[in-house]
Write a structure and sequence with these properties.
302 residues; alpha/beta; two-stranded antiparallel ribbon; 12 helices; 9 strands; globular
Amino acid sequence: MATLRKRVWLPLRRVWRRGVFRLLRAVARALAGHPRATRRVGRFVGGLNYALRPAQRRRDLANLRLALPGRPAAELPAIARESLCDASVGALEFLQMVDGRLELAQFLGPITAHGREHLDRALAGGRGVLGVGLHLGHFSKVPLWLAQAGYPVTIVIREARQVPPGYYIKALQRLGLEAIRIERDQAAAPRVLDALRRGRLVMIYLDQGVKNDGGIQIEFLGKRVPMPAGPLVLARRARAPIVPVFLHPELHEVVIHPPLPAPAGTLREDDPTLQTLYRLAEAEIRAHPAFWQWRYRRWGRS
């Protein structure tokens, strides 16, 4: 069964995903210059995704019940559906921007920022900063806005297999970001350390998740899930502070929190910095649940 899955199902799924990506990219190009139509089509795609995938829908609602125990059950379907709609709109707009069909200023919109003094103080230490964000709302706006504001941003990303190699990397570099791609045959850790030692702001996503054979197990939104430990260990090695940087989606606000010290010694679940980061992340997601990606694959399967 495992051999059949590896030889047949996985290649077919990759072909399907490549086809979906090409279709979305073509749709995004066709809608470029028409922001209202982009939003309408994006919301339609998100609603279709919610309606036509009952197994995933049930999983989304189960996760929401765990993560939001105080919310009435009747509200959860609307949250799950809105999450998919918002993500679909964001994907179309991001593709338009990457393909040069949407100006960066239009993609970002009127963003306000709070707490820049925390980031300025952390960078002034000269050891770089590990910035941690969330897949909350149109999350790609955070590193792009930071770069436009003059910060030396390096972003660590994993390009999906359905995307042409270097597609996002080249676009990010064109937009003023340094990008480190996570690759199987090349360790990202030395490049992250180098960026920190050059005094750069290295952005990662705290809720990225890892496979079950890696990371550190932590209580997060009602589940025990493996989350990435590597970036925090690298911050300790570089003696770089850690700064949470989150987007408040409804208000288009970038909120920068005070810096936290890198974990000391062996990374454990009860480490104060780790606990502070994940409790902050939970508070942000619970405050804006319709803008978090509940269908993120590894989160859903945990």
